[in-house]
Design goal:
Strands 10, 11, 12, 13, 14, 15 and 16 form a seven-stranded antiparallel sheet that branches. The protein has a five-stranded mixed sheet with strand order 2-9-8-4-6, with no helix packed on it. The N terminus is likely disordered. It is mostly beta strands and 284 residues long. Bound molecules: calcium ion (CA). It holds the Pfam family F5_F8_type_C_2.
Length: 284
Amino acid sequence: MKRHIAVVALSAATLGLVTPSVASAARPDRSPVRLTATPERIEVVGLPCLPSSLQVGMTNTGTADLYADMELTAEPPVTLDRQVLSSWLPARDPDFMVSTRVGVTVPRDAESGEYQVELTVDRQVLAVPVEVLPLPPKGAGDNLALGEQASASSTHGNFDVCGAVDGNKNSNDWDTLTGWNDATRGVFPDTHQIALAEPATISRVETYTLDSARYPAARYGLRDFDVQVRVDGAWQTVHEVRANVVGHVTSTFDAVTADAVRIVGLASNNGDYSRLVEVEVYSS
Ligand SMILES: [Ca+2]
């Protein structure tokens, strides 16, 4: 359910000072632009690969074409990747809407609590509450890769490199961008890399390649891959996985202090792409 907070602008029209022709064409006493934001409140956490976003829209509910400028502002430490949405809004029936996605982020050291994003057109304001959540624990037994900065040799346009560290390892959600898929069909190797927040002593990596009833690992999963860790700037292979046909592979190895982990895809079972649903890194 959407909730709209509209501050109605008063003008000469409300005082009856408007000529009949203007009044019949449009109602200048009230902005015909309706603002929308989905979802109506958002949560954000200060990790580089757990982005939040808001879908914002402007709808012309009036009977005259118009040009609208939406200003987007955020209360620090919240930042938005867009500050303005400008668009021509023709008067149409059904009402015409333009919308766009706005990325919402906070730095790692952001204090948790309630903040606010505001969308403004003319004197209408739509306030969207933003809750900054505490950072997830990253101690012994916690997944050190969750939400940390991921990068890859390439990423297919339909996917997001952060999908493999978003905390969702369910292959049934593959179509919702919870995984990473490289962009070089039939060409290997492909690499997916995760930079840890700080050097950590690690001894286990859990790799989830695509494996669902619709996309079984024996056909769509990674067949051959190396698990590597970065120690003092040099990559070391800690597990060579070969002829894999299952969705979940556990790699355990002698504890090592590393600041990054990567999966090097050498072959997939059908020879096209490297696919990862999730990669987890643990200290024990
Ligand atoms: Ca995922």
